[in-house]
Amino acid sequence: MNTTLDILPTLFTLPTRRELGDKAGSLAAAVVRSAIARKGTATVMLAAAPSQAETLRAFVSAPSIDWSAVEFFHMDDYVGLPSDAPQGFGNWLQAAAVDHLPGAAAFHRIDTSADPEEAARHYEAAMGDTPFDLVFVGLGVNGHLAFNDPPADLADPRGAKVVALDQVCRQQQVDEGHFPTFDDVPGTAITVTIPRLLNAVEIVASVPGVAKRKAVADSLSQPISGDHPGTALRTHPRVTMFLDAESDPR
């Protein structure tokens, strides 16, 4: 991650979530087509959240992509849920995206059934250190990227690690309808670190909804630091952020 840069993302504001998703998904598909044309394969990091649903819908329905040439990863998952829990991010992405793809796409999932530290090390090795061709991201209410809650380490040497989720992050999961109560939300997760997420050719950020407006404002205007993890996006030269009328703070 080049921490000497401070470049605002390219911003698009669309009237609705669906239009946001259409435009973001179209750009993401173009990035993947370009990567396959250039080198025969593409690697894609997926983000799991309601904010990503419309973007993923548009992306997986895009034409003229050889999905068998695409390797997918996902950026985080809970520790301690049953393996078939629908709240598990690997399960959510399998149902919302990967299962809709024609052809055999490879999906490398975090092993939430293993010892968490071992699973993080294994996933770090599976990702390697080659830049992803495309990374999807959202922003948490607290500005997190993946499950890197503030204060996040913007220079983390690890590729993936075990983290404790903060209260704001856990409450967001309840507010978005994933869990009935705060106590039902796992307190621990495995996350890909910010430097590994930003080790990418292109980043597509989809951030709809009024609940994310402050996180967007902070990410665009606060000094770059782990106190506002979304500010790390300004250290990457090719980030496109898609907002809707509710999330745009301008």
Count of DSSP strands? 10
- Spatial shape: globular
Name the strands of the widest sheet in spatial order. 1-10-9-6-2-3-5
Q: Give the ordered list of helices and strands.
A: EHEHEEHEHEEHEHEHE
Q: Characterize the largest beta sheet: strand count, sense, and whether it forms a barrel.
A: 7 strands, parallel
Q: How many alpha or pi helices?
A: 7
Alpha-carbon distance between the termini?
27 Å
Number of domains: 1
The CATH class turns out to be Alpha Beta
The averaged pLDDT comes out at: 96
Fraction of residues in helix: 25-40%
Structural class: alpha/beta
What's the architecture, going by CATH?
A: 3-Layer(aba) Sandwich
Indicate the CATH topology. Rossmann fold
- Taking pLDDT < 50 over at least 5 consecutive residues as the criterion, the unreliable ranges are none
Protein name: Glucosamine-6-phosphate deaminase
GO molecular function: glucosamine-6-phosphate deaminase activity; identical protein binding
Keywords: Carbohydrate metabolism
Organism: Phytoactinopolyspora alkaliphila
Describe the structure.
Keywords: Carbohydrate metabolism. InterPro entries: Glc/Gal-6P_isomerase (IPR006148), Glucosamine6P_isomerase (IPR004547), NagB/RpiA_transferase-like (IPR037171). With 250 residues, the protein is of the alpha/beta class. The protein has a single domain (10-244), classed as Rossmann fold (3-Layer(aba) Sandwich). 29% of the residues lie in helices and 20% in strands. The strands form two sheets. A seven-stranded parallel β-sheet has the order 1-10-9-6-2-3-5, with helices on both faces. Strands 4-8-7 form a three-stranded antiparallel β-sheet. Strand 2, helix 2 and strand 3 form a beta-alpha-beta unit. Helix 1 packs across helix 2 (53-60). The longest helix is centred in the N-terminal third of the chain and has 23 residues, at 17-39. The radius of gyration is 17 Å and the shape is globular.
